[in-house]
């Protein structure tokens, strides 16, 4: 009587234990696969960010170079305007000196 009860219980227990062991291994493999998949997605996401930042950096450097060229051009123009202004001031002084001379009639 004990054998009719004990053998099926032991067989069920061993079957459950074996199933649990294989399922645990399979679960670990699935977790590893999910981690690898998540890592790949993260790598693609960050690669996209890096690529986007590289494009933005190149664009910003190009804009900075353009602004630097414009700045240098404006400095040259400013120097020219200062030079012309100085010449005009000198001409104005000469004109004022000529006007101060007494008029002879």
Radius of gyration: 45 Å
Taken in chain order, the helices and strands follow as H
Q: Counting H and I runs of at least 4 residues, what is the number of helices? A: 1
Question: What would you call the shape?
Answer: rod-shaped
Largest sheet: none
For the termini, the CA-CA separation is 157 Å
| Total count of strands | 0
Summarize the amount of helix as a percent range.
over 70%
What's the multimeric state? single chain
Strand content: under 5%
**Overall pLDDT metric:** 89
Low-confidence stretches: none
Helix- and strand-based class? mainly alpha
Transmembrane segments: 6-23
Coiled coil: 50-77
Keywords: Coiled coil, Membrane, Transmembrane, Transmembrane helix
Q: What does this protein structure show overall?
A:
The chain is mostly helical and 105 residues long. The protein is built from 1 helix and no strands. The chain has one helix at 2-100. It is rod-shaped, with a radius of gyration of 45 Å.
Summarize the structure.
The chain is mainly α and about 100 residues long. It has one helix at about 1-100. It has one helix and no strands.
């Amino acid at each position: 009587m004990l054998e009719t009860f004990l053998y099926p219980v032991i067989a069920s227990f061993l079957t459950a234990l074996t199933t649990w062991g294989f399922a645990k291994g399979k679960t670990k493999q699935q977790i590893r696969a999910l981690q690898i998949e998540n890592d790949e997605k993260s790598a693609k996401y960050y690669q996209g960010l890096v690529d986007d930042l590289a494009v933005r950096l190149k664009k910003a450097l190009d804009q900075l170079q353009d602004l630097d060229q414009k700045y240098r051009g404006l400095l040259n123009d400013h120097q020219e305007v200062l030079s012309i202004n100085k010449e005009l001031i000198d001409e104005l002084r000469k004109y004022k000196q000529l006007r101060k001379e007494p008029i002879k009639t």
